[in-house]
Amino acid sequence: MPPDNLTRLSIAEAGDLFRRRALSPVELTRAYLDRIRRLDGDLLAYITVLQDEALAAAAAAEREIARGEDRGPLHGIPIALKDLVMTRGVRTTCGSRILRDWVPDTDATVARRLADAGAVLLGKLNMHEFAYGPTGVNPHYGTSRNPWDRHRIPGGSSSGSGVAVAAGLCAGALGTDTGGSVRIPAALCGIVGLKPTYGRVSRAGVVPLAWSLDHVGPMTRTVTDAALLLQVLAGRDPADPSTPAVPVPDYRRALQGGVRGLRLGVPKDLFFERLDPEVRAAVAAAARSLEGLGAVVEEIPLPTIQHAGPASFAIIASEAMAYHEPYLRTRAGEYGEDVRARLTTGQFVLAHQYLKAQRARQVIRAEVDAVLTRVDALLFPTTPIPAPRLDEREVTVDGVTEDARWWLIRCTRPINVTGHPALSVPCGLTAAGLPIGLQLVGRAFDEATLLRIGHAFEAVSPVRDLRPSEA
Amino acid sequence: MAPISIQLLQALTQELTRLPATPGDLAIAASQLAVQLDGLARLDALDLLAVEPATVLVPPAEAPEGPHAA
Predict the structure, then answer these.
(1) What ipTM is given for this predicted complex?
(2) Residue B58: inside a domain, yes or no?
(3) Considering CB atoms only, which of A310, A340, A355 is closest to B53?
(4) Domain count within chain B
(5) d(CA A313, CA A375)
(6) A with B: how many residue pairs have Cβ under 8 Å apart?
(7) Residue-by-residue DSSP string for A418-431
(8) Distance from A32 to chain B by nearest Cα, in Å?
(9) Of A204, A348, A365, Cβ closest to residue B33
(10) I need a labelling partner for A167 at 20 to 30 A (CA). Which of A112, A425, B31, B47 fits?
């Protein structure tokens, strides 16, 4: 198989080939490293590439598999991590100048779980500085380019993760999501992104943006691959007190079953106000496809969701400020301008506003919980717009002009406020060839149903197996 | 949306929070706050005194060689 075809394989497909001895982890790792060498000078998905370490890990996996020591579906699979996941002995920059040379001496729990599962770490991925922004624009390491159109942003903050997965520079990646940072680049780059339930995946060893809203999640080319990664990541971690001992189901098995009889709620409040017409049409078509598969789609009210935006603002601004205050006091000049300005804003959010926002979350979460007793999942766009141009600061939709960043986070940040799981699946392309994401939101700790719906939709999706053209 | 004075924010940073901030940062902060404060005030419509606040977790203690030591 030509090397570039190898980098189009899904994790599940590559694993099957390993077990049939039709492909080796070293061969696959070399194919990815070669592609990174050829394409990443332009795409800027990686901050650090671990060529020697990856080849050594792949060789070790190859020996283990040859001996019949199978660690599971990720064994020998080349993956990459957003560069705020701590990696022992490997610098972890957070996309910042401040941490440019920081080398942790421990692994984050998620990094350790992936290593224990036999995954091969290709490197650390570019991101919006300290994860504080939805565009992926980075003044320190360059801005990752959207592989569907290099004049457009990939979305962030997990920008490098979105680009690397979409462009075939790794088989799967981890991102983090505080206001949409897994789902936004997933939607804009045409891949699958899962923000699990708050507490489903440990954040221990992941540099925080806003602790009470942060989530770690997989970014992959297929829903099955997201299930395989979540299987390894999910579960209680004593090092992260937000992870309860909720049983972890068999996510791959849960993919089967289809959507016949499932009820999908379409919340018109907020999520369908002012959409790019092509996004509106693609999401409507996706809903019809799911109806065609036997799901029942119905409109549902969600009036308190309008308050999620201000609550999200107060919480992120306050918690990010609390984390960054020591740096701001002594190293403010080392931040990029946009992140420093946003952090500066945090010092003016008052304590009672923060507490009010934390209380508001309970009301909004209770309303979403109540709706999810009547329907199995919610369905709406991941982003109201496709990827803006790199120089596009403001975007106009339906005659309303707003900062591009506010458009990007409008449909994602409410679900960080409630903590429910949310999956973004590609559902279309605009006439200009830009990906569109469909967002599915489920009951707390019921990622399995979301993956099942996403998997069923993927099979009939108009963009199934579509990849950006070769560079 | 009521405008917020940059001079007010400058005075607050100098006398209250004592964090360095450039005029450019403060202008952006003023603009962001002006957009958000009305929305924060509208949270009162949710009858918040009747609910328990969400659990507020803080990040775990950092090791001495953690990111802030960099």
Answers:
(1) 0.91
(2) no
(3) A355
(4) 1
(5) 28
(6) 118
(7) H---EEEEEEEE-T
(8) 30
(9) A348
(10) A112
